[in-house]
Every structure is written in C-alpha cells, then in structure tokens.
Write a structure and sequence with these properties.
317 residues; alpha+beta; five-stranded mixed sheet; 7 helices; PINIT
Length: 317
C-alpha cells in the first residue's frame, strides 16, 4: 500500500491543471483555485482517502496523458513554449512584473509526500540523475530536527539581473506541534524554528551561509527581515554582511495550510543554492553540556578545529 501511495503521489505531481480538476471532480471536491492549491488538495486526497477507485482514476489520467504526449513527440514544438522541466507551481501567478520569475531547480529533489517538502508542478517525471549534492556546514548553535528542502540550486532563466524563485511547502502536524510547544527565547521568537539557508552551489566541501546580491525573502504575504551590513570605520573598505540562517517561523502558517516562500536575488554570475530546515536553537547551558561531553582534546587539535563564524556570534542565549 505504501508503494502505491508513493506511486500515486508521483503521478499527481506531474498532472496539469485539467488533470487535477478531473481528479478532484471525480471525488466531488472543489476544482477551483490555482495550480498549487489543486496539487495540495489532490495530494491530501491521496494521503488520507486513496481508495482503489481513486488510485485507478489517477492511473487512468496519468496513462491517458502520457499516451497523448508520446504520440506528439515527433511534432516540432513552437520555440516560445517552455519545456516541461521549466514549468512550476507559480506559473499561474501574474507575469506582469518586470522581475524575472524562475523556479528552484529540482534536479536533485526526490518527488515528495505532501508535508514538509518542496512541491513542484513539473510537466513530467524527470529521470533520476546521480549527482553530488550541496552540503552546508553544521550550525554551531542549532540542532537540526528535519530537512524540509534539500539544498537546491537557484537557476536563472534569462539575462535579467533580478530573479525570483518561489517555493511551496506545508508542515506536518508533528512539526507544527514542535514549534507551538517550544519555549520562547524572547517575545515572538520560538526555540524551534523554520530557517532558510543560502550558500554557494559548490559540492567540493560543506558550504558556509552566503547571501546573493539584492536578496529579499517573502513568506506568504510579508517580507522577512534579512541581516543588514556591518558599518565600516575604515575608508575604502566595503561593509561586511553577516550571513546566517534566516528565521521564517513568525511569518508562516502554523497549520496544514501551504506556505509560499519567494527568494528574490541578483543574478551576477555566481551560483547559489537554498535549503529549508526545522531547527532548535540551543541554550548556553546546553552548549556548555555539549562541550563537557566532548572531553579534553590536544591543544594543537583544538587550534585546528577552532572556528566559530562571526555571523553566528551573539545567537546563543
């Protein structure tokens, strides 16, 4: 049954709007809404109410669609049409903005279950490609509880300097409870947080947090505060910016509703990747206890390992 559920979710993720509407109409559910809303509704149907009849209908829609696609493969495609890989959930949103819209690349993302993952409405299931994954350095003052989105490359689709990369995901009930029941570090700031991390797309070694130029992060309908630049007292020296995980928790829907995150970034030649994580910020007492459990090490080894990024200093409370 578990294998059938995974198969059904993968098929649903590849459906067009018309396929999703036919599926939802088949079970008597609402067919109105944007594509990402239809996808979420269909995935909830698969997750909680996937009867043999529903699974049969999903398979029928999937086979009908790809039988039709295979018969058209020999026909030349108009140049202005985007390839299926370029289609994303946000394609039904307003395209009137002068900011170029791009989806987060999904070449290294497994097709997800409903909760806690990036939902991308690709036109078809791409083949599995084994490639090195971007890794981020471990956070010194946080314990990682869940990986909501693997480090995923921000891919520009034109020559515009300013790009937008949307991401749609939902938290599981367990993740929501962890956040709600966690203690407050200060008013409005929970110890369990959903954080966004951005780094260079480099698979040779674990990467530190690094922001692209002109970064802005929008969560649902509000912009999230991003650390600013440190002032510089030296003439001719550019101010530095502390690059650290960005806490999105206070702007998210702590329910079964989907959350939409949009990263605006400057495309100036360097490649960046983003990841989403559920973390718990440690207290000073917990950090001290961790140091005690490590034990005494040789001074030379400590010198070699001694590294706490300046951007993280002051985060431990």
């Amino acid at each position: 049954m578990a294998a059938e559920l995974v198969e059904a979710k993968n098929m649903v993720m590849s459906f067009r709007v018309s396929d999703l509407q036919m599926l939802l109409g088949f079970v008597g559910r609402s067919k109105s809404g944007l594509k990402h809303e239809l996808v979420t509704r269909a995935l909830q149907l698969v997750q909680f109410d996937c009867s043999p009849e529903v699974f049969k209908k999903i398979k029928e829609l999937y086979e009908t669609r790809y039988a039709k696609k295979s018969s058209e493969v020999a026909q030349p495609q108009p140049q202005q049409h985007r390839s299926p890989e370029a289609l994303s959930i946000h394609s039904s949103y307003d395209r009137g903005s002068t900011v170029a819209r791009t989806s987060i690349s999904t070449t290294n993302i497994d097709y997800p279950a409903l909760y806690g993952k990036y939902l991308n409405g690709l036109g078809r299931l791409p083949p599995k490609v084994a490639k090195p994954e971007v890794r981020l350095v471990k956070l010194p003052f946080y314990t990682t509880l869940d990986e909501l989105l693997k480090p995923t490359e921000l891919v520009p689709q034109n020559n515009e300097k300013l790009q937008e990369s949307p991401c749609i995901f939902a938290l599981t009930p367990r993740q929501v409870e962890l956040i709600r029941n966690s203690r407050e570090l200060q008013p409005g700031v929970k110890s369990v947080q959903v954080v966004l991390r951005i780094c260079y797309t480099d698979t040779s070694s674990p990467q530190e947090d690094q922001y692209p130029p002109n970064i802005a992060v929008k969560v649902n309908h509000s912009y999230c505060s991003v650390p600013g630049y440190y002032p510089s007292n030296k003439p001719g020296v550019e101010p530095k910016r502390p690059c650290r995980p960005i806490n999105l928790t206070h702007l998210m829907y702590l329910s079964a509703a989907t959350n939409r995150i949009t990263v605006t970034w400057g495309n100036y030649g360097k490649s960046y990747s983003v990841g989403l994580y559920l973390v718990r910020q440690m207290t000073s007492a917990e950090l001290l206890q961790r140091l005690k459990t490590i034990g005494i090490k040789h001074p030379e080894l400590c010198k070699a390992l001694e590294f706490v990024p300046r951007s993280y200093r002051g985060e431990c409370r």
